[in-house]
Amino acid sequence: MTVLGLGSIGTALAEVLVAAGHRTTVWDGTPGAGEALAGKGAVAAGSAAEAVAASPLVVIRMATYEAVREVLDSVAAGAFEGRGIVNLTPGSPLHARAAADWARRHGAGYLDGVIMATSPPGIGNPDFPVLFSGSRAAFDKHREVLAALGEPVHLGTDTALASVYDTALLGLMWSTLAGWLHGAALVGADGPGGNETATAFTDVADRWLKTVGPLMRSYAAQIDSGQYQGDGITLHLHRSAMDLLVHASELRGVDPDLPELLRELTGRAIEAGHGDDGYARLVEVMRRNDRS
């Protein structure tokens, strides 16, 4: 196992691999960067080429895809033949596909990956998924090693999928946290001297969120089928509730922009003639398929 790039994430990757008992070779362009890891059982290579030659699987974590390409191009042609490359560098779908093309031209099995831990200490925790897309053969061959980094999940052979899922899941996280923050502001609008605290609200919100997962799965089936039945809870009813949330925010002195955004999205679907449909219909507004 080789790790190229020893920033905070790359170092954490190498540490969990060593702790899991995998022979781990490390390299970074900064002189002496691998010394601390060598003291923990890793092998510090003198060059990127030496590090690549040491292992059948090369894990890369750099600041940018441009830095990744620079390092890969510095290694002699043919050095990657038959090896696996796992690139955990943040980037776009275009970056991922370009890197996969490079790997194919050099005879390597390529996986683009995303670690869904929110901080380096989460790396190696089996509760955090590590998303991979690209070569299924490379994923199956190296799955045992990849499992040391977290729960390995193969999304598909389209190399761009890991990047797309990463941004989509971050959007979900930010949206969820924004809704929670708005709720905390709303119930705690009386300030520190009031009776309602963010902690008290979060205790209730945590219980409430347990109902959201099944709701998402129900809505996912509607999205996949293109049938957005209201089942008695229509977009008209949702918008009425959103009106109340906007009004309550204004009364409590809380910024109403977030609920107003939700109300505006819902209004667009209603104006397009879908007021009797369910909430999942809004996916068509987000896809820009519903226009009034």
Helix/strand layout:
Blueprint: E1 2-4, H1 8-19, E2 25-27, H2 35-38, E3 43-44, H3 48-53, E4 57-60, H4 65-73, E5 84-87, H5 93-105, E6 109-115, E7 129-134, H6 136-146, E8 151-156, H7 161-187, H8 198-209, H9 212-225, H10 235-252, H11 257-274, H12 282-286
Parallel strand pairs: 1-2, 1-4, 2-3, 4-5, 5-6, 7-8
Antiparallel strand pairs: 6-7
Helix pairs in contact: 7-8, 10-11
List descriptors:
alpha/beta, Rossmann fold, N-(1-d-carboxylethyl)-l-norvaline Dehydrogenase, domain 2, 292 residues, 12 helices, 2 domains
Description:
- The chain is an alpha/beta fold and 292 residues long.
- The protein folds into two domains: 2-158, 3-Layer(aba) Sandwich (Rossmann fold), CATH 3.40.50; 164-286, N-(1-d-carboxylethyl)-l-norvaline Dehydrogenase, domain 2 (Orthogonal Bundle), CATH 1.10.1040.10.
- 51% of the residues lie in helices and 12% in strands.
- It is built from twelve helices and eight strands.
- The chain has helices at 8-19, 35-38, 48-53, 65-73, 93-105, 136-146, 161-187, 198-209, 212-225, 235-252, 257-274, 282-286, and strands at residues 2-4, 25-27, 43-44, 57-60, 84-87, 109-115, 129-134, 151-156.
- An eight-stranded mixed sheet has the order 3-2-1-4-5-6-7-8, with helices on both faces.
- Helix 6 links the parallel strand 7 and strand 8 (151-156).
- Helix 7 (161-187) packs across helix 8 (198-209) and helix 10 runs antiparallel to helix 11 (257-274).
- It is elongated and about 65 Å long.
